[in-house]
TrEMBL record:
The keyword Cell inner membrane does not apply. This is LysR family transcriptional regulator. The lineage of its organism: Bacteria, Pseudomonadati, Pseudomonadota, Gammaproteobacteria, Vibrionales. InterPro entries: LysR_HTH_N, LysR_subst-bd, WH-like_DNA-bd_sf, WH_DNA-bd_sf. Belongs to the LysR transcriptional regulatory family. PANTHER family: HTH-TYPE TRANSCRIPTIONAL REGULATOR (PTHR30126), LYSR FAMILY TRANSCRIPTIONAL REGULATOR (PTHR30126:SF94). GO terms for molecular function: DNA-binding transcription factor activity; transcription cis-regulatory region binding. Residues 1-60 form the HTH lysR-type domain. It comes from Vibrio diazotrophicus.
Length: 301
């Protein structure tokens, strides 16, 4: 075996950052030492792992083939080192990408449990849209993802964590607020403000309504739920949001959940990870604690 873990770490860092200089900074190496390690690895393997595209380093076919295997070796090496150093088998750092609904309502409780029971696990959390979380998992930015809805990409493994549901929302002074039911025709006549395309909420809403309503009057699209809540509470708009995001405002009387019998917008919240990645004790620990946390919560499966 002629290659070293250091060379694989350099390869992995360049693949992550797309830059030799940024990878060198990340690894606390000089740029020349980083370039030399990468060149030595390519020479030993007899294949080019990167090609230059402007200022960026892009993976070749061989680089893409190597990347999950290098990740696996580096993860195993980290577990060996941390396990012996701390006498703690479940230790190390894990990067998690979570979409907005689970990040706001579920992940903080999960992190608290992990911090209490597994203090040697360090969690790096990023909050993105569902599509960005999927892309981050595929691009090795996240070891574990938590998304709304489903991914149909066969490079992703997915395990359902729990369920929630979306609801159509209006202000308490909206003309539809006092109606026992709201028709599809009335939805078509309304002004809408919605989550941006690529979010799990928008994907679920679009897939539920597209075959029922020909055209919605969408005035604005925003990433942040508080913006949508405020617009609806103070204006003539409708929106569609997870019940978790509006429950408190409904109880305070600021918002009203409309009854649209034709719409069934239940959905899953799921853990995702790359199909070609090896077993990851940290990810397995977090998922196990996540399932344990959900027991007894009536809103979820």
């Amino acid at each position: 075996m002629r290659y070293s873990l250091k060379q694989l770490a350099v390869f992995d860092a360049v693949a992550d950052t797309g830059s030799v200089s940024v990878a060198a900074e990340k690894l606390a190496l000089t740029q020349s030492a980083t370039s030399m390690s990468l060149a030595q690895l390519e020479k030993m393997l007899g294949r080019p792992l990167f090609e230059r595209q402007g200022k960026q380093m892009a993976l070749t076919h061989w680089g893409m083939w190597l990347r999950p295997k290098a990740k696996r070796l580096l993860q195993d090496a980290q577990q060996i080192e941390m396990g012996f150093y701390d006498q703690q088998l479940v230790s190390g750092e894990i990067s998690i990408g979570a979409s907005q609904t689970p990040a706001e309502h579920l992940v903080p409780d999960l992190i608290s449990i992990i911090d209490n029971d597994f203090p040697e696990i360090r969690i790096d959390l990023s909050v993105k849209s569902t599509q960005a979380v999927i892309e981050g998992v595929l691009d090795y930015k996240f070891d574990l993802g938590i998304i709304e809805g489903r991914s149909d990409d066969n490079r992703i493994h997915q395990e359902e964590w729990c369920r929630d549901h979306l609801t159509v929302i209006a202000s308490s002074h909206h003309p539809f607020a006092k109606r026992a039911t709201v028709s599809l025709a009335q939805l078509e006549q309304a002004k809408w403000v919605l989550r941006e395309r690529g979010s799990g909420t928008r994907k679920t809403f679009d897939s539920s309504i597209h075959h029922l309503v020909e055209d919605l009057d969408v005035w604005r699209e925003y990433e942040h739920v508080p913006v949508l809540r405020s617009l609806v509470a103070n204006g003539p708009y409708l929106t569609c949001l997870p019940y978790l995001d509006v429950e408190r405002y409904i109880e305070m009387g600021k918002l009203v959940a409309l009854n649209v019998p034709e719409l069934n917008m239940e959905r899953t919240l799921s853990f995702i990870w790359r199909a070609d990645m090896a077993e990851n004790p940290l990810a397995e620990c977090i998922m196990r604690e996540g399932f344990r946390m959900m027991k007894g919560r009536s809103l979820f499966l």
